[in-house]
Design a protein that fits this description.
30% helix; single chain; 132 residues; alpha+beta; 5-stranded mixed β-sheet; 23% strand; Cytidine Deaminase, domain 2
Amino acid sequence: MSTIDETLLNEARKAQKNAYAPYSNFHVGAALVTDEGKIYSGCNVENTSYGLTICAERNAIFKMIADSGKHTISRILIIGDTDEFLPPCGACRQVIVEFSDENTVITMCNRSGQMKHHLMKEVLPFAFFLGN
C-alpha cells in the first residue's frame, strides 16, 4: 500500500466514525487529496427525508470547496461497512467528475481496507470534464 493510500484510508476511517446514519446504519467515510496535496475527508449524513442525505464523497468535496475553493482531485478513497468494494453512487460520480480529470484515481475499499483502484474515466465513462 502506498503512503498516500494509507493516509487517505486512515482519514476516511476517522471520518467514517463520525457518520450520522440512524436510518441505514451504513457508515461511510471518504478522503481525497487535491492537486496541491491537501487532504479533505467526509462522512455520510442521513436525514429522515432521504433526499436530503449527503454522501461521504460529496461531503469531502464540499469541505474542499468551502476551505480553499476549486481544485482538481488527484485521488479519492471511499470505505463503508461492507465486505464488498464500495463504489461512489451516481450523484457522487457526477460531483467527483466536476472536480477531476480523466486520470483522477477512485479507490474503492471494503471494511478490511482492501482496495481497488480505478481511473475516473472508467468509473464514469464518456463524462464531460471541465475544460473539455
